């Protein structure tokens, strides 16, 4: 993968301000340390930072068509490059390089903006056609590759700036740094930033399967920034799913599409490795990759030092069975406290899931070992019901089946009262159900995060967060009500958690921080389509047999105990911010850890203006005492969100909350 950036004068006339795009490209150097490239014309300046993986010798960007009338910069991979190149050459197109980037300008010549229907893989692209002055900015279907944009007024013109990361936009010096409280509302509702809203005012995220298309000199700001959809996940109408009366045929079909997806993703001009957790998803990907390569590939595993959270032994068992050479990376309380600022800096938004730090260390290890590409098993849980909320909903879903009787809401209220949790009014619950097309197991679990809006926020910030539902920003599919309720749950996991969390704070931003490209076989277009069409009984059989069809395939590749191993929700410790008797407080604090006290101090809490300092101090003292259960987990998640937000504010907006170096220029 790479990093792309640039700016367009919407009037199509003025030259870009000197040095701005170069500064944007420098800010995302980590995405492409191998080389850079620029194209400057009246009305535009675009840039690429390259991580060379395909076409090592001649893949420099920007790249053009034969007569240099169509130019592109590209982040990602097209896994059907060889077949697409042959098809384009048969039509008379002449290729001058050996890189998949060159598919873009030639495909534009044939299809214009409809080229997105013909591109397969993971990508964020910018196309400029000099003949028509058309611009296209687009993102892949699942949201693997990020793309952010904003519009600013400069020197009398409206300029659209874009970048693979928000730090590229901020580095322009033209974008004002301000918090978007609705973006923080997303963080404290979804534990994710799914887009298009971000935590910075004025900066938007191009949502998965979306694009911008406009003509310089013939567009308004609104027209240029209106996101259009070329793809989104869809399901058959309820009752029209593939029920699968022939189990072998259905399992054979899934094995075939998944194997081909793995086969496509080991293609590169550099060596490929894989993450391995010991669960069925990554284990199956590694087994198939070994088959394709004809040899075991190296694997990388996180070892969380907390015994209750550690999957090291399971991963090593799989590696031994498959003959892989494993690399194990340790991560615990000490690494968490020391590395959390780097995690927030890399992700660019408050990250509540502390396990993301483990992925940061994992990607760094891949880079240190000299590799650039890693396979992962992400995506199966979203589309095959691998998470606990699917099971919870199957057990308690009966409470919400009686129209007009909010039994589920009443039970939740009683449960929260018994655990001393703050509670939302019934109107909020009713509006949420309306947006989500009914009750939803995903909400049952992530309600743990939402209650912290009531617990920690204060004043105007609290009022702003409670005034608008973040669900209104998601552009939810109008077909939602036609689907099986089980598929509705998967839709929200795929729309929110996948691009907003797993592919962001555990995927692209974290891996590319160490110049590593991650590839996702379960997010192949054919695999997604296959998983979507089958009946929910092939995703969750009974209450406990999740990812049923995948596990039936895994039985053919792995020992049965691995194929049916229960999922562990991988996470790192979340109580590292408590009053731990000197570990992070006062004169006895370990080196580098005083920042925890500093950003959570009453003075810093008041300066940032989001949270109630008394509520924060109370939570720290509560977590300093031993304990467990629902109430404690909710507070842990909330305090982690507070710390992450304060740290993000310091790093990106203020630079005044602690002694850590920030990304804000000092006055």
UniProtKB/TrEMBL annotation:
<dbReference type="InterPro" id="IPR006426">
    <property type="entry name" value="Asn_synth_AEB"/>
</dbReference>
<dbReference type="GO" id="GO:0004066">
    <property type="term" value="F:asparagine synthase (glutamine-hydrolyzing) activity"/>
</dbReference>
<dbReference type="InterPro" id="IPR051786">
    <property type="entry name" value="ASN_synthetase/amidase"/>
</dbReference>
<dbReference type="GO" id="GO:0005524">
    <property type="term" value="F:ATP binding"/>
</dbReference>
<keyword id="KW-0067">ATP-binding</keyword>
<dbReference type="GO" id="GO:0006529">
    <property type="term" value="P:asparagine biosynthetic process"/>
</dbReference>
<feature type="domain" description="Glutamine amidotransferase type-2">
    <location>
        <begin position="2"/>
        <end position="217"/>
    </location>
</feature>
<dbReference type="Pfam" id="PF00733">
    <property type="entry name" value="Asn_synthase"/>
</dbReference>
<keyword id="KW-0547">Nucleotide-binding</keyword>
<dbReference type="InterPro" id="IPR014729">
    <property type="entry name" value="Rossmann-like_a/b/a_fold"/>
</dbReference>
<keyword id="KW-0028">Amino-acid biosynthesis</keyword>
<comment type="pathway">
    <text>Amino-acid biosynthesis; L-asparagine biosynthesis; L-asparagine from L-aspartate (L-Gln route): step 1/1.</text>
</comment>
<dbReference type="InterPro" id="IPR033738">
    <property type="entry name" value="AsnB_N"/>
</dbReference>
<keyword id="KW-0061">Asparagine biosynthesis</keyword>
<feature type="site" description="Important for beta-aspartyl-AMP intermediate formation">
    <location>
        <position position="378"/>
    </location>
</feature>
<dbReference type="InterPro" id="IPR029055">
    <property type="entry name" value="Ntn_hydrolases_N"/>
</dbReference>
<dbReference type="InterPro" id="IPR001962">
    <property type="entry name" value="Asn_synthase"/>
</dbReference>
<comment type="similarity">
    <text>Belongs to the asparagine synthetase family.</text>
</comment>
<dbReference type="Pfam" id="PF13537">
    <property type="entry name" value="GATase_7"/>
</dbReference>
<keyword id="KW-0315">Glutamine amidotransferase</keyword>
<dbReference type="InterPro" id="IPR017932">
    <property type="entry name" value="GATase_2_dom"/>
</dbReference>
<protein>
    <recommendedName>
        <fullName>asparagine synthase (glutamine-hydrolyzing)</fullName>
        <ecNumber>6.3.5.4</ecNumber>
    </recommendedName>
</protein>
<feature type="binding site">
    <location>
        <position position="100"/>
    </location>
    <ligand>
        <name>L-glutamine</name>
    </ligand>
</feature>
<feature type="binding site">
    <location>
        <position position="302"/>
    </location>
    <ligand>
        <name>ATP</name>
    </ligand>
</feature>
<feature type="active site" description="For GATase activity">
    <location>
        <position position="2"/>
    </location>
</feature>
């Amino acid at each position: 993968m790479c990093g792309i950036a640039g700016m367009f004068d919407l009037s199509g006339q003025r030259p870009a301000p000197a040095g701005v795009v170069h500064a944007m490209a420098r800010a995302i150097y980590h995405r492409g340390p191998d080389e850079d490239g620029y194209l400057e014309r009246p009305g535009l300046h675009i840039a690429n930072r390259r991580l060379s993986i395909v076409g090592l010798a001649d893949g420099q960007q920007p790249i053009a068509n034969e007569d240099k009338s169509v130019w592109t910069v590209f982040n990602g991979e097209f896994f059907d490059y060889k077949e697409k190149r042959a098809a384009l050459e048969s039509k008379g197109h002449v290729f001058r390089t050996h890189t998949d980037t060159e598919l873009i300008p030639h495909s534009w010549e044939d299809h214009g903006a409809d080229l997105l229907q013909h591109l397969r893989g993971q990508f964020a692209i910018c196309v400029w056609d000099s003949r028509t002055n058309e611009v296209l900015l687009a993102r892949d279907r699942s949201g693997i590759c990020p793309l952010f944009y904003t519009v600013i007024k400069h020197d009398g013109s409206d300029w659209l700036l874009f970048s693979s990361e928000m730090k590229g936009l901020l580095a322009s010096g033209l974008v004002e740094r301000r918090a978007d409280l609705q973006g923080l509302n997303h963080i404290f509702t979804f534990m994710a930033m799914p887009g298009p809203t971000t935590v910075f005012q004025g900066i938007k995220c191009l949502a998965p399967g979306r694009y911008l298309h406009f003509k310089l000199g013939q567009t308004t700001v609104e027209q240029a920034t209106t996101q259009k959809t070329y793809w989104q996940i869809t399901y058959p109408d309820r009752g029209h799913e593939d029920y699968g009366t022939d189990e072998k045929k259905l399992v054979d079909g899934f094995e075939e599409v998944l194997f081909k997806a793995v086969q496509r993703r080991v293609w590169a001009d550099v060596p490929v490795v894989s993450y391995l957790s010991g669960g069925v998803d990554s284990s199956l990907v590694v087994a198939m990759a070994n088959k394709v390569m004809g040899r075991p590939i190296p694997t990388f595993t996180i070892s969380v030092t907390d015994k209750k959270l550690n999957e090291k032994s399971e991963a090593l068992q799989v590696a031994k069975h498959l003959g892989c050479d494993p690399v194990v990376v340790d991560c615990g309380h000490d690494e968490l406290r020391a590395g959390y600022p780097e995690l927030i800096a890399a992700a660019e938004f408050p990250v509540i899931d502390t396990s993301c730090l483990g992925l940061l260390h994992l990607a760094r290890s891949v880079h240190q070992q000299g590799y650039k590409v890693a396979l992962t098993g992400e995506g199966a849980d979203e589309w095959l019901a691998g998470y606990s909320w699917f099971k919870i909903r199957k057990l308690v879903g009966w409470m919400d089946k009686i129209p007009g009787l909010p039994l589920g809401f009443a039970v939740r209220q009683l449960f929260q009262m018994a655990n001393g949790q703050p509670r939302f009014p019934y109107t909020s619950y009713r509006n949420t159900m309306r947006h989500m097309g009914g009750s939803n197991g995903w909400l049952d679990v992530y309600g743990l995060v939402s209650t912290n809006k009531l617990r920690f926020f204060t004043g105007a910030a609290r009022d702003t967060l409670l005034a608008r539902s973040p669900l209104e920003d998601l552009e939810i599919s109008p077909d939602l009500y036609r689907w099986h309720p089980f598929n509705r749950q998967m839709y929200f996991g795929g729309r929110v958690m996948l691009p907003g969390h797993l592919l962001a704070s555990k995927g692209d931003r974290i891996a590319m921080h160490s110049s590593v490209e991650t590839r996702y076989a379960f997010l192949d277009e054919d695999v997604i389509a296959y998983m979507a069409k089958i009946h929910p009984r092939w995703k969750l059989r009974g209450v406990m047999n999740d990812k049923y069809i995948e596990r039936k395939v895994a039985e053919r590749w792995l020992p049965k105990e691995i194929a049916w191993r229960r999922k562990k929700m991988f996470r790192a410790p979340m109580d590292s911010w408590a009053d731990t008797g000197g570990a992070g407080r006062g004169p006895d604090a370990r080196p580098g850890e005083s920042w925890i006290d500093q950003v959570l101090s009453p003075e810093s809490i008041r300066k940032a203006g989001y949270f109630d300092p008394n509520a924060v101090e109370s939570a720290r003292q509560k977590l300093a005492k031993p304990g467990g259960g629902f109430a404690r987990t909710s507070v842990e998640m909330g305090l982690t969100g507070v710390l992450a937000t304060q740290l993000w504010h310091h790093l990106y907006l203020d630079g005044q909350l602690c002694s850590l170096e920030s990304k804000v220029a000092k006055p």
